[in-house]
Amino acid sequence: MVNKLYPDAAAALDGLLFDGMHLCAGGFGLCGIPERLIDAIRDSGVKDLTIASNNAGIDGEGLGKLLRTRQVKKMISSYVGENKEFERQFLAGELEVEFCPQGTLAERCRAGGAGIPGFYTKTGVGTQVAEGKEVKTFDGQDYILERGIFADVAVIKGWKADESGNLIFRKTARNFNQPMATAAKICVAEVEEVVPTGTLDPDAIHLPGIYVKRMIVGAPYEKKIEFRTTRPREAA
């Protein structure tokens, strides 16, 4: 059996990164993001990246780290409202942005992973999202053509995996990680725990090991909170 487990993130990404490459990155906000792999990408110095991800993290966290070091050329994203550096670079013309409706982005990655080069959707018809895209009419309704996404490398975060790379996501951390994992030539996963092959219930596996080429154990993690909301303590 091929050994998919690497000692650290830098080793797992060795030989995979190059300037101008296209990455798919799992996660939603700070939930389910591949923290160790993002740090290794930052430390590698690779630049001019095109990254497909729901968002770009927040300032100084998640993919926000790569924005801060100016390693990102283009973001293909759905929600970018929590990152001031993203906003600054975009308004200054320093960052190319392809805005994509959230469901469409998930389907573009799923389609790319399934070998589907494009599909038609009603989402975005009549808006700026449709500009420059082919429009086709089905049963009297207009649909726009969206291209599937297929990247050079996908970096994802899982909860538990076995030695063969079969992987389980934890609750909402499943988010974009599952479609992103299939939408690249090589998927590198960081997980919290690796167990012997055969330990996981086959019916509980979310991502078959055939998609996972390399893995690291990234634990322990510090739980990051995007917004900390508190209320005054009531008097005794």
TrEMBL record:
<keyword id="KW-0808">Transferase</keyword>
<dbReference type="Pfam" id="PF01144">
    <property type="entry name" value="CoA_trans"/>
</dbReference>
<dbReference type="InterPro" id="IPR012792">
    <property type="entry name" value="3-oxoacid_CoA-transf_A"/>
</dbReference>
<dbReference type="InterPro" id="IPR004165">
    <property type="entry name" value="CoA_trans_fam_I"/>
</dbReference>
<protein>
    <submittedName>
        <fullName>CoA transferase subunit A</fullName>
    </submittedName>
</protein>
<dbReference type="InterPro" id="IPR037171">
    <property type="entry name" value="NagB/RpiA_transferase-like"/>
</dbReference>
<dbReference type="GO" id="GO:0016740">
    <property type="term" value="F:transferase activity"/>
</dbReference>
